[in-house]
Design brief:
This protein has helices at residues 2-6, 12-24, 28-41, 43-65. With 66 residues, it is an all-alpha fold. The chain has one domain (2-65).
């Protein structure tokens, strides 16, 4: 699923569907695929996810120094 949507042009309908899947899906593999496709479909989502990952990395680096 994720691969199919990832290869498509950006589409607001796909973003809405992928957001729903990411929020509600219980299957981790399917949720992960939707997450990857959503990063491709929605630049704002990708920026948010990337910033969260960056902040986690900074926090981990600080805690490892202590």
């Amino acid at each position: 699923m994720g691969g199919l949507l990832h290869s498509q042009s950006r589409d607001a309908r796909a973003v809405a569907a992928l957001e729903h899947i990411v929020r509600t899906e219980t299957d981790a593999r399917l949720r992960g695929q939707a997450h990857q496709a959503l990063k491709h479909q929605d630049p704002a989502y990708k920026a948010h996810v990337d910033e969260e990952a960056r902040q986690r990395g900074i926090a981990a680096a600080r805690s490892s120094k202590e």
